[in-house]
Write a structure and sequence with these properties.
alpha/beta, Rossmann fold, four-stranded parallel beta sheet, globular
Length: about 700
């Protein structure tokens, strides 16, 4: 064996090619750092202005008006170019400013470009402008922990994912003490404005900061960030002002690439069902976009499940002169049956594999789960009150708790409403996996909340699916279809006549399509019995190996792989859409500051259309806020946007469900979205959800 002379490691490490190969700055990153996103036409001018516009109105919550009096009457502002602006306007636009910026909540691709856009616009207006980044989220404001940003810092993160430049955190400025500390920091630093980049809670914080600092003339501007896509703004008349928060497109594309890879895997080794849970606790926007990007075999949208009505149950109840309120909303059992139906139908055509996409918050849309939580809370609270002892101490084991619930069906406890825990409740609850029953019956947090995010949603559903598939397999309904070519080949090699055995083996022999073993043949014993009964095998004879092989191939093995897609998507590098969107949001934020507005959210109108139609806006935050129950009390928050099941994007997915299930012979319909590209004329210019909604709502082009 030839010997090689060891290379001096110092010389190896000093080699230019080695340094290039091991550099943390890859060629892709170099391309990203040098990429300049296009800017909206209005920002191509030296000076902009924010002009209030008519035509939009909001239904204002009474409590929002009470708590946010100084910013509640803010109007929508459009960023425009002033015509022959007076010197005073120019001077005010270019005056020296000190601006802070903070990331709040989980990261979302594109955040660094918000900083870059704000920084570039500020320095272009006046090189003396100073931008301060608060470190590790709102804690940086409360604790006075910040850094002044410079060219090198900003340039090192242009077009890159993450919030690495100044980090982020989830602290909320939601108490008088925190607000006072934040106010002290902002005033001590002499800030003219603060930009808060975050989701619904963070923009809620921005509104209260704007109110608190209104008298001090410190401006607060919010920027809509969340990969969940649940910050979408419409006015009371349905006019779309912000079609999507930033980061959504990049995360959806990252998830879609991974789901597509799994689809490729499943259709290659044809033995796994990949169950893909994607982020989206409150809304299913990501699941919807992933469905459009990948054409997964089965995709479930929580809002659609919540809207389901079991009409057969309603008819039955009407015939009995009653109303069955449990007919509204899909049950877990019904959901598992829908999944099983798809699995069985695909198996029948030889496809015992596939991909399923479910949103993280699926269980929150299952009505029976919500009902269980309300009922169990009531039962436990009443037990503690009546017996003056703790329910969980009295019944420490799950079996003991289930036994107590079972007794309530027969003998309702004093103090509880009649029928609060009925036989149907008991039956449905006992259908749930043990670990989920345990979760629903454990002690709540200090506010009485059940933490859905801690439950592996796919495991809850899969346990029910596996149980029912076993029943279907034992009944002979769950079978893997066998191609006629394969059957003839296997028997032909063994010297057996396929046409002789076929009618005794298959329920559909002689018909086109995949062959399905008869329902009565569910084991080797029943197979032998069928052959003996047919007179083609003696009672003491052995089943021919070829026949045995055909039977074994027909018996399905339901194998699954579960995946959760969340943090990987939050940290991905942004798509070209998000790079452009966020950079222009930064420019918009500065224009709103330069005009003197506060309590506004920087936004881009017409995201659902092409870039040439984008229109930078300032949207008033306070009118968007509503009272919601948070941690056991009513709190003003920015309202989240759910999937609109009447919108074109969802209707398209619904129309393609059967096609994408591909429960028929032939190839699957999987779509390959491809990797995230930055500078390519093949890269999509916006989320498919937005494209479809734009097309479907244009006159003469759809809904």
């Amino acid at each position: 064996m030839p010997q090689t002379t060891p290379v001096d490691i110092r010389l190896l490490l000093e080699n230019d090619e080695v340094q290039q190969a091991t550099s943390p700055i890859s060629e892709s990153v170099k391309e990203r750092l040098g990429y300049q996103p296009p800017i909206c036409r209005v920002f191509q001018n030296d000076i902009t202005q924010a002009v209030s516009v008519d035509g939009y109105h909001f239904e204002i919550d009474v409590e929002a008006r009470r708590q946010l009096p100084d910013i509640i009457n803010n109007r929508v502002h459009r960023i425009t170019v002033p015509t022959d602006p007076p010197e005073s306007v120019v001077r005010d636009f270019r005056r020296v400013r000190r601006i802070g910026i903070v990331f709040s909540g989980g990261p979302a691709p594109g955040g660094h470009n918000v900083i870059a856009g704000l920084y570039d616009a500020a320095k272009r207006a006046n090189k003396e402008n100073r931008i301060f980044g608060f470190l590790v989220g709102p804690d940086g404001i409360i604790e006075g922990d910040y850094v002044e940003l410079n060219d090198a810092q900003v340039d090192d993160f242009r077009n890159l994912g993450g919030f690495t430049m100044i980090k982020t955190g989830r602290t909320k400025i939601d108490t008088a003490k925190k607000m006072a500390l934040a106010k002290d920091t902002i005033l001590a630093l002499g800030l003219d404005a603060l930009v808060v980049v975050g989701g619904d809670d963070s923009n809620t914080n921005a509104a209260f900061l704007a109110q608190e600092l209104f008298a001090h003339k410190v401006q607060i501007i919010g920027v809509p960030k969340t990969i969940d896509g649940d910050i979408q703004v419409r006015d009371a008349d349905g006019h779309v002002l912000c079609a999507m928060s930033f980061g959504f497109h990049s995360a959806a594309r990252a998830f879609s690439q991974a789901v597509s890879n799994l689809s490729n895997d499943s259709s290659s080794d044809i033995k796994y069902w990949h169950i893909c849970r994607v982020m989206g606790r409150v809304a299913s926007h990501l699941a919807l976009e992933v469905a459009l990007q990948t054409h997964a075999n089965l995709t479930f949208i929580g809002e659609d499940l919540a809207d389901y009505v079991d009409r057969q149950r309603l008819i039955k109840a009407r015939e009995q002169g009653t109303v069955d309120y449990t007919a509204y909303g899909m049950t877990l059992r019904h959901l598992s049956r829908v999944i099983c139906d798809g699995i069985v139908r695909r198996a029948a055509v030889g496809k015992n594999y596939g991909t399923v996409v479910i949103p993280e918050g699926l269980l929150e849309f299952i009505n029976e789960i919500e009902v269980f939580i309300v009922k169990l809370n009531t039962i436990i609270a009443e037990y503690n009150h009546t017996h003056d002892r703790d329910f969980h101490i009295t019944f420490p084991l799950l079996t003991q708790k289930l036994d107590y619930l079972g007794r309530l069906v027969r003998n309702p406890a004093p103090g509880l409403a009649p029928n609060i825990w009925n036989a149907r409740d008991d039956e449905l609850f006992n259908d749930l996996p043990d670990f989920f029953q345990e979760g629903l019956l454990t002690e709540r947090d200090s506010h009485g909340n059940f933490q859905f995010s801690q439950i592996p949603t796919e495991k809850v559903v899969l346990d029910l699916v596996k149980d029912y598939l076993k029943i279907l397999r034992d009944q002979g309904d769950y079978r893997v279809g066998i191609t006629q070519e394969y059957y003839r080949k296997i028997l032909g090699r063994a010297g057996l006549d396929p046409d002789y055995y076929g009618p005794f083996l298959f329920a559909n022999y002689g018909q086109p399509g995949h062959l399905l073993v008869k329902q009565s043949i569910i084991s080797m014993r029943t197979l032998k019995n069928a052959l003996v009964t047919a007179g083609i095998l003696n009672a003491d004879g052995a089943i021919p190996e070829a026949i045995e092989k055909i039977f074994k191939v027909s018996v399905p093995q339901f194998k699954t792989q579960s995946h959760f897609f969340g943090y990987d998507g939050r940290g991905t590098d942004p798509t070209r859409f998000d790079c452009t969107y966020t950079y222009n949001l930064g420019l918009t934020a500065f224009s709103l500051i330069a005009h003197g507005t506060t309590g506004q959210m920087a936004a881009i109108r017409n995201l659902e259309h092409g870039f040439d139609q984008w229109e930078p806006l300032g949207i008033p935050i306070a009118p968007l806020m509503r009272l919601e129950e948070r941690k056991g009390r009513l709190t003003l928050v920015l309202e989240k946007s759910l999937v609109d099941i009447s919108a074109p994007a969802f209707r398209v997915v619904k129309a393609f469900r059967e096609h994408w299930l591909a429960a028929s012979p032939g190839e699957d319909q999987f779509r390959r979205p491809g990797p995230i590209l930055l500078d390519s004329d093949k890269e999509e210019d916006r989320p498919i959800t937005l494209r479809l909604n734009a097309i479907g709502r244009e006159p003469g082009r759809g809904a």
